[in-house]
Amino acid sequence: MAQKRQANNVGFTINELARNFDETEATVRHLTKTLTPIGKRGRASLYHHADIDAALKKRISKSRKPAEAKNLEERKLELQCRKLEVEIDEKLGKLIPADEVRRFVATHTSAVTMHLRKMGGELSPQLQGLSVARTEKKISASAEELISKLRKMPFDE
């Protein structure tokens, strides 16, 4: 009977607990200041594994919660500020509606596609037999023509 009671009260030293939990001895020693030892082994005090485990979990949850809450609160405020900025820009007319942007991109993409197809048909016969320098010059001139057309196209077309 006496052996069973001793087996239930088996504790761990600070050094053993530090190795078990992969913590420094100083950390475990700090955690044990609030705990009552369950016994002694020579000069070393013994503590329950579960007590240290609970103290570590409590320490970790305390240290993480405020930081996470602060980050969440900061993120929430950032999002609220961004939303207000967008609303202000919308009222001031600084924003372009998405449909207009889509229409603009579609129109300009169509113009580029048509010009490139036309360019291929027109330039092929003109480029035959030309030197590399003259070929590059003709292609550059055609590209500049395309760029000029795009610049002249109205936005709201």
Structural notes for this entry:
- The protein has 157 residues and is mainly alpha-helical.
- It folds into 2 domains: 2-64, Multidrug-efflux Transporter Regulator, Chain: A, Domain 2; 98-152, no CATH class.
- 75% of the residues lie in helices and 4% in strands.
- The protein has helices spanning 2-8, 14-21, 25-32, 49-91, 98-127, 132-152; strands spanning 39-41, 44-46.
- Strands 1-2 form a two-stranded antiparallel sheet.
- α2 crosses α3 (25-32) and α5 (98-127) runs antiparallel to α6.
- The longest helix has 43 residues, at 49-91.
- The chain is elongated and about 100 Å long.
Number of strands: 2
N-to-C SSE series? Answer: HHHEEHHH
- The residue-averaged pLDDT reads 81
Give the CATH architecture of the largest domain.
Orthogonal Bundle
How many domains? The number is 2
- Beta-strand percent range: under 5%
- Helix fraction, binned, reads over 70%
User: Are there runs of 5+ residues with pLDDT below 50, and where?
Assistant: 1-8
Please list the strands of the largest sheet in the order they lie side by side.
Answer: 1-2
What composes the largest sheet? Answer: 2 strands, antiparallel
CATH class type of the largest domain: Mainly Alpha
Shape: elongated
Structural class: mainly alpha
What is CATH's topology name of the largest domain? Multidrug-efflux Transporter Regulator, Chain: A, Domain 2
> How many DSSP H or I helices?
6
Distance between the termini: 95 Å
Explain the layout of strands and helices.
Blueprint: H1 2-8, H2 14-21, H3 25-32, E1 39-41, E2 44-46, H4 49-91, H5 98-127, H6 132-152
Antiparallel strand pairs: 1-2
Helix pairs in contact: 2-3, 5-6
